[in-house]
Specification:
The chain is of the alpha/beta class. Helix content is about 40%, strand content about 15%. α1 runs parallel beside α8, α2 crosses α3 and α11 crosses α13. The longest helix has 20 residues. The termini are far apart. The protein binds pyridoxal-5'-phosphate (PLP).
Length: about 350
């Protein structure tokens, strides 16, 4: 018997066959050579931040998942990570924010909650010219609609909790890359810090993944229909959805995405009071923070996901008291429409 030989799996934090299956699948879906699975989306984000040395500076898009902001400021900030937030509507503002210490640009697209679309080709050009890494949080689009590595990103990050698993019953995260050196560093961190998903979670995620394409097509079909309906509704002031023609966001999205996703935000006429009545009137859209599952969810950013921002900051960013975010599920679209119609009537 040879001592010290094993069949490739020695200890499950380091590697596990079910995790390997998930990691290979995620890499292929993103058109990447390497994939790494983590215990959550924020654990995947932490792995990417851990690539940086002490004293490094990162430029982040200013419409951003709150947990990413918290991780950068309250966890990595203590260890000397410096941050600047650039205007996601203006690629030049990213370029202007780059300093001699900048090592990473981090963006989401489409963004949360305003569904702004960032021109990834343009940003990748800026990052390459300045020798800075570009990481893209692709959670909202899912790999079915967008592949940032193909558009020039160095790293793509997911909360697999959302569309990739799709059934609101697993927390998970992932990173994909084509860069073997970065993958080596991430793999080292993954094993050293240990925020890995267990095999059961990997299996559930793989099972969810098998229907990603079918689900995404249904999400999009439903959200397109509802976006048209809501845009024409007299009690709605504005609809945010990159699939609606006539905006610059739409032009960029049409170039870099294969579809526009399943998320939609809207601004109701009337303030907080109208929102409260609208939310109370909904029966199918459940009030919840999450997104990307087969069931329709509604959230109120001003009091939920973005409550930590001071009101002046919120208003500056367009997150008003009348803004509501919908994660449109795959239920019968006429039922969803009737639910929204009822709630708008009772408002
Ligand atoms: C949910 C989410 C995350 C964090 O993922 P968890 O799985 O909850 O840790 C990161 N980015 C985006 C865009 C998200 O929606």
């Amino acid at each position: 018997m040879a001592i010290g030989k094993h069949q490739g799996y020695e200890y499950s934090r380091t590697g596990n066959p079910t995790r390997t299956a998930l990691e290979r699948c995620l890499a292929e879906l993103e058109g990447g050579r390497h994939g790494l699975a983590f215990a959550s989306g924020v654990a995947a984000t932490a792995a990417v931040f851990s690539l940086l040395e002490k004293g490094a500076h990162i430029v982040l898009g200013d419409d951003l998942y709150g947990g990413t902001y918290r991780l950068a400021e309250s966890v990595f900030g203590k260890w000397g990570l410096a941050t600047t937030y650039a205007d996601v509507d203006d690629p030049e503002s990213f370029e202007r924010s780059i300093t001699a210490e900048t090592r990473l640009i981090w963006v989401e697209t489409p963004t949360n909650p305003l569904l702004k679309v960032v021109d990834l080709g343009r940003l990748a050009g800026i990052a390459r010219a300045r020798n800075v890494l570009l990481a893209v949080d692709n959670t909202f689009a899912s790999p079915y609609f967008q592949n940032p590595l193909r558009l020039g990103a160095d790293l793509v990050v997911h909360s697999t909790t959302k569309y990739i698993n799709g059934h609101s019953d697993v927390i998970g995260g992932a990173v994909a890359t084509n860069d073997s050196r970065l993958c080596g560093q991430l793999k080292f961190y993954q094993n050293a810090a240990g925020a890995v998903p267990g095999p059961w979670d990997c299996w559930l995620t793989l099972r969810g993944l098998k229907t990603l394409a079918v689900r995404m097509r249904e999400h999009e079909k439903n959200v397109r229909y509802l976006a048209e309906f809501l845009s024409a509704h007299e009690r709605i002031a504005r609809v945010y959805y990159p699939g609606l023609a006539g905006t610059r966001q739409h032009e960029i999205a049409a170039r870099q995405m294969r579809g526009f996703g399943g998320m939609l935000s809207l601004e109701l006429k009337g303030g907080r009071h109208a929102v409260e009545r609208f939310l109370a009137g909904l029966r199918l859209f459940l009030l919840a923070e999450s997104l990307g599952g087969i069931e329709s969810l509604v959230s109120y950013p001003a009091q939920m996901t973005h409550a930590a921002l001071p009101e002046s900051q919120r208003r500056k960013r367009g997150i008003t008291d009348a803004l509501v975010r919908l994660s449109v599920g795959i239920e019968n679209v006429q039922d969803l429409r009737a639910d929204l119609e009822n709630a708008l009537r009772e408002m």
